[in-house]
Each structure stands twice: as C-alpha cells, then as structure tokens.
Amino acid sequence: LAKTTQPISMDSYEGQEVNITCSHNNIATNDYITWYQQFPSQGPRFIIQGYKTKVTNEVASLFIPADRKSSTLSLPRVSLSDTAVYYCLVGARNNNDMRFGAGTRLTVKP
Amino acid sequence: SAVISQKPSRDICQRGTSLTIQCQVDSQVTMMFWYRQQPGQSLTLIATANQGSEATYESGFVIDKFPISRPNLTFSTLTVSNMSPEDSSIYLCSASQTTYEQYFGPGTRLTVT
Description:
The structure holds 2 protein chains of 2 kinds.
Chain A lengths: L8 E5 L4 E6 L7 E8 L6 E6 L2 E4 L4 E4 L5 E6 L8 E9 L11 E6 L1
Parallel strand pairs in A: 1-9
Antiparallel strand pairs in A: 2-7, 3-4, 3-8, 5-6, 6-7, 8-9
Chain B lengths: L3 E4 L2 E4 L5 E7 L5 E7 L5 E7 L6 E2 L10 E5 L2 E6 L8 E8 L6 E2 L3 E5 L1
Parallel strand pairs in B: 2-11
Antiparallel strand pairs in B: 1-3, 3-8, 4-5, 4-9, 5-6, 7-8, 9-10, 9-11
C-alpha cells in the first residue's frame, strides 16, 4: 500500500480557496487517489476520486501531476461548514484494505 | 450512493459484557466494512464483512473478540465481546460497490465502564 503524507492541520478564512496536498511517493500503477471529509460525530464522506490530471465535481477539484507522486485537493471559496478533517487515500479499486492516514484538520475562520 | 444506519447510536456497557452493533444499508452492496475510531484519531479498519463466509480481519483484530455476521447484501453485525475500558471507541460501518467509494454510517459510540 502506498503511504500518504498530509499536513496535520490548516487554517483558512471564509471565501478563500484551500489547497490540501497529499504526498504518495510509492503510488502503484493501479492505484487511485481518493479523498474523504469527516465532520465531528459523523462518518467520513466520499468527496472525490481520480487517477491522473484533473477531476472536478460540485464539491471540489483534484489535481494530480503526471508523476502521480502527489495530489492536491482544492476547495473553492470555503465556508465555516467546511471545517472538517480531510483524508487522502491511495490504493487499487479492487483492494479490500483501504487505510486511513492521520488526515488534515482544516479550520475555517470567519 | 447508499444510506447506512447503525444501531445503537451509543451505549454504556459494563466490562465483561458484549454488545452487538447492527448496520443496515438501504440497497444491496458488494462490500461492507467495520472500523474503529478513537475520538480525535483516524479510522482503523477492523474487518471486511463477507456475505456468506467468514469475515476477513486486519492484524490485531480477532474473530473471538469481534465476531461479525453478514447474512445478506444489506445487513451486518459487529459484536464487541468481553468488553474492557480499552474497547471504548466509536465503531463505524461502511458499505460500497467499489472499495474506494465507501459510504459510512453515523457510528456507534461505545463507553465501557
């Protein structure tokens, strides 16, 4: 399994764009990159998944460079309600052992 | 997507007793998983609940302590047996059709006294 490294915490202000970078130097050819969001007292929520280049949905964008050794989750114009822990996971889609790292605790301030 | 419900949402139990947590999915799913999460910590995978066969446990978790059932494609149970205060945690169930797009339940907050 590719190990992931994320910043432990980040602070931002309402209305700003937030970029959270995840390092995964040992990513394998079959591995996908997936991000989850977890609010206090709730289970994690799937945000976005990608393999290469850029993926965008109604919540976020995911940027993956050509070497795929890192990825960046981009949250446009954050609000107070985006305060949560964000987890980056790397692995093959048919793999049954999804491992959560420490995650990044994002705090959005008014 | 899938909607996951768990029962109970929380419980306070005495050491030495057992608690069974139920997980119900609103649609048939290929995979179901059980996690444990200490407050303020990340999630740790306990096991994969396999329909019609024994669960697949992660290192450090054993069937005698955490027996799991999965009688069909929408339901699973996790039992925490012979509990001690160290078992106090949040237990989360998840379900998915593909491993990396999982849908999580709200969790069961267990306190062992």
